[in-house]
Design goal:
The longest helix has 15 residues. The strands form 2 sheets. A 3-stranded antiparallel sheet has the order 1-2-3, with no helix packed on it. It has a 3-stranded mixed sheet with strand order 5-4-6. It contains 5 helices and 6 strands, in the order E-E-E-E-E-H-H-E-H-H-H. Helix content is about 40%, strand content about 20%. Strand 4 and strand 5 form a beta hairpin. By secondary structure, the protein is α+β, with helices and mostly antiparallel strands. Helix 1 packs across helix 4, helix 3 runs antiparallel to helix 4 and helix 4 crosses helix 5.
């Protein structure tokens, strides 16, 4: 495993333990070159979940990409980042089929964020729904107040 800080291939495992109720293994690693520590997750991948994008091309589901979007939406908000990670990394396991649209991923992420934090929900919705005007923003906020 390459070090994310210095790209050295000389890393060692310090600690391993089951994660996500045994669905993955969490490993703490240390770089032999720079001495920095980082965490990796290892999980079995039987058949990848394929995402059907808006332009109809397909790509494998990447939980890191979903997690990045959630982290951006929740930046500087009082959110438990472990809950975001758990949602992103369990997403693939909870999907009954091997294909999903990017719209469905966004819809589920919004359903996840809405009760968690309204500001994060609006931030995510603004990107997911491609708000192109202030009026669309106001409509979404009004809809949030009404629900």
């Amino acid at each position: 495993m390459k070090c994310p800080y210095c790209s050295s291939a000389d890393t060692r495992v310090i600690n391993s333990r089951p994660s996500d109720e045994g669905a993955s293994i969490r490993r703490r690693r240390e770089c032999e070159r720079c001495g920095r520590r980082f965490t990796t997750y290892e999980r079995a991948q039987l058949e990848p979940l394929m995402v059907i994008k808006r332009d109809t091309h397909r790509e494998p589901f990447n939980p890191d990409k979903l997690l990045r979007g959630l982290m951006l939406a929740t930046e500087k908000r009082p959110i438990n980042h472990e809950a975001l990670r758990k949602f992103a990394y369990s997403f693939e396991d909870e999907n009954p089929t091997h294909e999903i649209t990017s719209e469905e991923i966004g819809r589920r992420a919004m359903l996840f964020l809405k009760p968690l934090d309204e500001v994060a929900y609006i931030r995510f919705a603004s990107v997911y729904r491609e708000f192109d005007s202030l009026e669309r923003f106001i409509e979404e906020i009004k809809g949030l107040k009404d629900s």
